[in-house]
Design goal:
Length: 350
């Protein structure tokens, strides 16, 4: 009996030593990757970043697995006489919780496995490089912040560019590659757009968050297409009705809350309600966000450059340093650009 007791105590000591050795081993790497100042100054990218992103979760899973299996092993030792099937089920009782925990902890890194060879492309504008990170607004209008490794950050921080093309793992947000660009190619922009307005010389229109608005149509048609009229209390009183040739300047809001400025004119010989007026001017400027304002041929306010505009529409009817004006039978399209040659605003008018 004493020999068995000593043997049990010895096995417990041995198993505790094994656990302590494993903990020491994992703890060393935890310190090395997460606490060592040399490593903390250097974010990991690519495959190394992917492995680093799940190291802590993997450590927790292993610890839970070891603890549960140790407890299960000791309990099952006291039930050696039980049937094999019962002992097997008892083992599963202690194994399954660690597997479930591992699944939830490692779900995001494992979901990125297919993207290791083909990362997701994110386009950023209004980019900032500081504190070893890249910040910018993506094509959907969301603020993104990506950590860069020290070498990559040092090579990019002094470059003054308008856009960034980031290859990233979508679930863990680990950066695989970064390029800074003054302008984006037409293919890069068009690959991010789902809908397209075809060029039509008989009408001028734009697309806002997927909702189209056409110059020369009545305001009631726009409202029927889910545009909402946005009026202040003063405007509600002032534009209760429109006399012949009166013009009202108002805002329309789409389903996502994006607003644009329009002018409504009464072209009839009698007074009419505001929504019976005709849209004679549409104006929208760079919203400082995503690819929301789109012209025909996938020209996007805030993203497309002068070269893309000329490729889509040809040479303008008139132009100066920052403005290009196109005229056809349906009206005038005036495009304004930044000093860097990026489309900043659009005005459609008749």
């Amino acid at each position: 009996m004493k020999k068995n007791k000593k043997r049990n105590i010895g096995s417990w000591i041995l198993m505790i030593l094994v656990v302590l050795i494993v903990l020491a081993f994992l703890g060393f790497f935890f310190y090395r990757f997460y606490m060592d100042p040399v490593y903390r100054m250097n974010s990991f990218e690519g495959v190394e970043g992917w492995l680093h992103s799940m190291y802590g979760e993997f450590l927790v899973t292993i610890l839970v697995f070891l603890i549960l299996m140790l407890i299960g092993f000791r309990i099952l030792q006291h039930h050696k006489g039980e049937k094999r099937s019962i002992r097997f089920l008892g083992t599963l009782v202690f194994l399954i919780p660690s597997l479930i925990l591992g699944f939830f902890l490692l779900k995001e890194p494992l979901s990125d496995l297919p993207y290791l060879s083909n990362p997701q492309t994110v386009l950023l504008r209004e980019i900032k490089l500081e504190d070893q990170s890249l910040e910018g607004i993506d094509q959907d209008g969301n603020l993104r912040l990506y950590s860069l490794n020290k070498t990559n950050y040092e090579s990019l921080k002094d470059q003054k560019k308008n856009f960034s093309v980031v290859q990233v793992l979508p679930n863990t947000q680990v950066v695989c590659a970064v390029e800074l660009e003054n302008t984006l190619s037409e293919n890069q922009i068009q690959s991010m757009l789902i809908e397209n307005l075809n060029k039509d010389d008989t009408k001028l229109q734009l697309l806002v968050d997927g909702q189209s608005l056409t110059l020369g149509t009545s305001l009631s048609e726009a409202v029927a297409s889910d545009w909402q009229i946005k009026l202040t209390e003063r405007e509600e009183r002032e534009y209760e009705s429109l006399e012949p040739q009166d013009v009202a300047s108002i805002q329309l809001t789409d389903q996502r809350g994006t607003s644009i400025e329009v002018q409504i004119k009464n072209n009839q010989q009698q007074a009419i309600a505001l929504d019976q007026g005709t849209i004679t001017s549409i104006y929208s400027s760079d919203l400082g966000s995503g690819m929301q304002i789109q012209l025909p041929e996938k020209i996007v306010v805030g993203w497309s450059d002068e070269e893309a505009v000329i490729n889509a529409y040809g040479e303008p009817s008139s132009s100066d340093k920052l403005t290009k004006t196109y005229q056809n039978e349906s009206g005038t399209m005036e495009l304004t650009f930044t000093e860097q040659g990026i489309l900043e605003s659009v005005r459609l008018s008749v």
